[in-house]
Input
Amino acid sequence: MVSRDSSKTQHISRRNFVERTSQWGALFAAYQFLPLPALAESLAKDLRISQTPIVDKGFASVRKVGDGLYATISDTSKGLQTMCNGGFLVGKDAALLIEGFASPAGAAFQHETLRTVSQGPIMGALDTHYHFDHAMGNAFYGANGIALWAHAAVPKRILENYVAMQGVDRAAFLAPLEARTRNAKTELARKHAAEYAATLGNIFAVVNSTVIAMPSRPLDPGKLPLKLELGGLTAVVESHPGHSGTDLIVRVPEQNVVYTGDLLFNHMYPVTFDEQATVSGWRSTLKTFLSWSKDTIFVPGHGQICGAEGVQLSLDLFEDIAGQAEKMHKSGVPADDAADQYLVPDKFKDVAIFAWNLSIGPTISKLYKEWDSR
Ligand SMILES: [Zn+2]
Output
């Protein structure tokens, strides 16, 4: 009896595992995950950055980027445990972890790596914003008694966007997205809508296989910047507009190193779908990043570690989309049509695009709204 039950249990969990793995596989296809590029030559010579990672797990590797500063860089072509980038800061008195990643396994990997360089106390872990790929691993921190810090609006946004998905009928959730695909007016619009539906279907699957955990240390943006003294290492938590309405960055001014969260996508079209994303706000944040010391090292939310050239590329991408969108706006192309009609110029052909309707499409829609409300 007992053995029959346990074999049945094993069978079910194995099947669930296989289902989940194939869903992750579909997510792969929808997102056009490219292998992580090598470090830019200018950074490969930077003495602050270790030439080889201190650990490489495939799905993510960890590199030293300063004195007591480490960057966790995901390679989504090799696995999706982390999905986004993060890192950790190790001072003489305490350490700070950055990001909850896409799964507890991702957060566990980073914590394990921290423990290979320090056994000291951990002040906390910080989610740079509420998006699933930065927060679905939060439960790891809860289970290990590590305080979880985030923008004060993060619990509410997680509740509204992800807890609201849990236990909901998958077909009902996908129905409006599939209808939008069927009703698309052009082939291009159909392709973008289908890709969007597939992507949200995968996010739905990830969220429904996650025990969601909320931050325990809300940070009121009105009270930022916040200085953290880790012992011979001072980090500053700041809030900037742009990507999600909950974006925080961690800066180490003495070493010119910045962990940007998704306020910077390196070599990718910025992801602007969030209802609180603001294109004008984001562009001014990128200009702020460029106003800092020319030798600043940026650990972006996605993509390889970069310098100011990565920030400039993001601005150039916004500029190019805005230029094309403005022409369509002036010649009377409706917002819904314009969102599908941007042409990727040759010079940006190798720039990655997460789903079109999470990045380029909403950038155009939001620009139209900004122009129409003037
Ligand atoms: Zn994000």
Notes: Residues 1-30 have pLDDT under 50 and may be disordered. Residues 151 and 219 are 5 Å apart (CA to CA).
